[in-house]
Amino acid sequence: EAGVVQSPRYKIIEKKQPVAFWCNPISGHNTLYWYRQNLGQGPELLIRYENEEAVDDSQLPKDRFSAERLKGVDSTLKIQPAELGDSAVYLCASSSEQGTDTQYFGPGTRLTVL
Amino acid sequence: SQQGEEDPQALSIQEGENATMNCSYKTSINNLQWYRQNSGRGLVHLILIRSNEREKHSGRLRVTLDTSKKSSSLLITASRAADTASYFCVFGTSGSRLTFGEGTQLTVNP
């Protein structure tokens, strides 16, 4: 069974530039999560999807961050414009049941904003 | 939402020794999970224990849950250098958000 796929693995951009991350969850998983992880800290939830509906986006900085999950499968997380403080690892995860059961994580995208 | 608090923040042991990490929380939970993160394999689910369970085993891992004390522990027996990683406890409540703490950084010295 293929795991959660994310791309790109690494991204270096200058501040004020836009950036997008892509995630393909495990086949059949209805729930998809985006997390941000700063160095030395645990992952912080940005947004959770149940199929194509964003059911928890309270932690998403909506002035510059946006996400979509068209057709309830793949998802894209965008930052526009990026700021220096956005440098972090962006993790995507999926699970087969709502919320509290096992989450399967992708390898993450390491973003560096210069 | 609230996060689990792991203790200790860092732990260094010799290969072959046992490692114990603890986690505390404040509200009622449906389940508690432990995850491991290292640079080689990313963030991986280790074990889930439900609120009506007191102990669970998986290979060299043993997890206990004490809902009266709102605490859990993860024991890794006969540790290996490959167990070097950050360990996170994460608990699920009704409402479905999992919140990660800062984790325990375990170093197993060969």
Structure notes:
- The complex is a heterodimer of chains A (114) and B (110).
- Chain A is mostly beta strands and 114 residues long.
- Chain A has strands at residues 5-7, 10-13, 19-24, 31-37, 44-50, 53-56, 65-68, 75-79, 88-95, 104-105, 109-113.
- Chain A is globular and about 35 Å long.
- The N and C termini of chain A lie far apart (37 Å).
- The mean pLDDT of chain A is 92.
- Chain B has no helices and eleven strands.
- In chain B, the strands form two sheets. In chain B, strands 2, 4, 5, 9, 10 and 11 form a six-stranded mixed beta sheet that branches.
- The model of chain B has no long low-confidence stretch (mean pLDDT 90).
- The chains are: A mainly beta (114), B mainly beta (110).
Number of strands of chain A: 11
| Helix/strand order of chain B, N-terminal first | EEEEEEEEEEE
Instruction: Give the class of chain A from helix and strand content and strand pairing.
Output: mainly beta
| Assembly state | heterodimer
Overall number of strands of chain B? 11
Per DSSP, what share of the residues of chain B sits in E-state strands of 2 or more residues?
A: over 45%
The main β sheet of chain A shows up as: 7 strands, mixed
Shape of chain A: globular
